[in-house]
Amino acid sequence: QVQLVESGGGLVQAGGSLRLSCAASGRTFSTYAMGWFRQAPGKEREFVARINRLGARTYYADSVKGRFTISRDNAKNSVWLQMNSLKPEDTAVYYCAAGMGVSLVDEYEYWGQGTQVTVSS
Question: Of 1, 5, 23, 76, which has the fewest beta carbons less than 10 angstroms from its beta carbon?
């Protein structure tokens, strides 16, 4: 079992940057792909980025490609999401997730509680 705790959210102006962190507990962290998802008010949870178990391959939603970078360190049981050139439409609660999937919510087994990111115009 994996427990996930996100941090690093906050309020930032458009064009700014934030770095989200996700700390995982449990010895099986390295056996899971890790994903970041987000959910804006009134909208469904959507895929943002994914990194494979060893950190060698990444995958991004088109809306964040070139602006966001996902990374992980299995020795630290951690995954990060570096977000640059933020836009107001990036405003959402951001969740990290662990599982065997790629971009679908149902493919991920474990979820954090989320961290709020607000981008002002």
Answer: 1
